[in-house]
Amino acid sequence: MSIVSQLFDRLNRIGEITAIYFNNHVRGSRYPASLNGRLLEWYEAYYAFSRLMYTPEFLIEFKLEPGQMVVVDNQRMLHGRSGFVLEDGHYRYLEVAYLDWDETRSKARVLKAKINADSNVEQ
């Protein structure tokens, strides 16, 4: 198994990266055990990719204001946050929600079909 496939987890038939799971929660439990003596090589690749992610040309930083939100597709975008200090009397509220794409696409198809059917009836 290649270091690239171990580091990025999902490659298609021609070796293109289709998903990246890059976080401490999965690093220890999923990757290094299957490297058969190539652990140092894996960590070198992991560190190189980590440095690349923090290169200014690939980094977008912004501060959310109260009432704002961000929606991220975990399969399409690496995301994270920098540290922060709360002022006295303030709090951080984080809400996480997961969306199932199969269900979402199915609902969109049903609604589109209904809209098309309704527009045909009106004519």
Itemize the secondary structure elements and their pairings.
Layout lengths: L2 H6 L1 E2 L5 E3 L4 H7 L8 H15 L47 H22 L1
Antiparallel strand pairs: 1-2
Cα radius of gyration in angstroms = 21 Å
List segments where confidence is low: pLDDT < 50 over at least 5 consecutive residues.
none
Taking the sheet with the most strands, its summary is: 2 strands, antiparallel
* Helical proportion, percent range: 40-55%
Strand content: under 5%
Which H/E pattern describes the elements?
HEEHHH
* Global mean pLDDT: 78
Q: What general form does the structure show?
A: flat
Oligomer: single chain
The strand line-up of the biggest sheet is 1-2
Total helices: the number is 4
Query: Structural class per helix/strand content?
Result: mainly alpha
Measure the end-to-end span. 59 Å
Q: Care to count the β-strands?
A: 2
Account of the 3D structure:
This protein is 41% helix and 4% strand. The protein has 4 helices and 2 strands. It has helices spanning 3-8, 24-30, 39-53, 101-122; strands at residues 10-11, 17-19.
List keywords for this structure.
mainly alpha
Q: How would you summarize what this structure contains?
A:
This protein has 123 residues and is mainly alpha-helical.
